[in-house]
Amino acid sequence: GAGVSQTPSNKVTEKGKYVELRCDPISGHTALYWYRQSLGQGPEFLIYFQGTGAADDSGLPNDRFFAVRPEGSVSTLKIQRTERGDSAVYLCASSSTGQGTGEQYFGPGTRLTVT
Amino acid sequence: AQTVTQSQPEMSVQEAETVTLSCTYDTSESDYYLFWYKQPPSRQMILVIRQEAYKQQNATENRFSVNFQKAAKSFSLKISDSQLGDAAMYFCAYRSGGSQGNLIFGKGTKLSVKP
Predict the structure, then answer these.
(1) Cα–Cα–Cα angle for A69, A75, A80, nearest 5°?
(2) Which residues have CB under 8 Å from A44's CB, separation 6+?
(3) How many CB pairs (< 8 A) connect A and B?
(4) Phi, psi (degrees; rounded to nearest 5) at A12
């Protein structure tokens, strides 16, 4: 079956603009995660969904970042008033369970560049 | 808070030889899981191997094995019979055994394989 997909693959935007990044998880996976990977760093956790609800949003850096998952499948990460420091690869992962060794399957990421 | 440290930014190995990537972590939890992920230039994170902290036996997956030293909080990855396709970034990751399922990653080690 299809893996996790993310669109767009690359996004270039101007400082101050609004962007939306989309994640399509593996069908049937209830857990969905967003991570941000800055250049030369490992991914950093942003937010975790279990079903439709955000079970943990402690990784969101500030109130410019928001994510939704209204029907428990597709998720959208929204960034308002983008800043150059928001430039990074945004990774999405899904899992059949949010616990234990349940494997997280990652998408190819969206590379966001804020000019 | 839990932390993961990878002290080798870059490593190199000759094709068919063996290489070991180091990882240490810090936690006060007794229930947790450890992972090694591979990230090729395509950006997609791929799970290489996983270890449950309560298991004393080291995990093995074909050419990949780990040396899990719980008391020392060390979790190294050994790649045997290295192949050109093993060249990638390798990330060590920690996951709490609780219901929050996000991964905490190290900064990664870039592995080069020489033909």
Answers:
(1) 100
(2) A35, A36, A37, A38, A59, B105
(3) 67
(4) -115, 130
**pLDDT tens sequence across B23-79:** 999 999 988 999 999 999 888 899 999 999 999 899 999 999 999 999 999 999 999
Are B103 and A95 inside 8 Å of each other by CB?
A: no
**How many other C-beta atoms can be found within 10 angstroms of the C-beta atom of residue B62?**
9
Its sign, for the CA torsion A27, A98, B64, B15, is positive
Interchain contact, A43 vs B103, CB within 8 Å: yes
Q: Which of residues 4-33 of B touch A (CB under 8 A)?
A: 4, 33
- For A85, the 3-state DSSP assignment is helix
Please return the burial class of B57, using the count of CB atoms within 10 Å of its CB with bins 0-12, 13-18 and 19+: exposed
38-67 of B, contacting A, C-beta below 8 A: 42-47, 50, 52
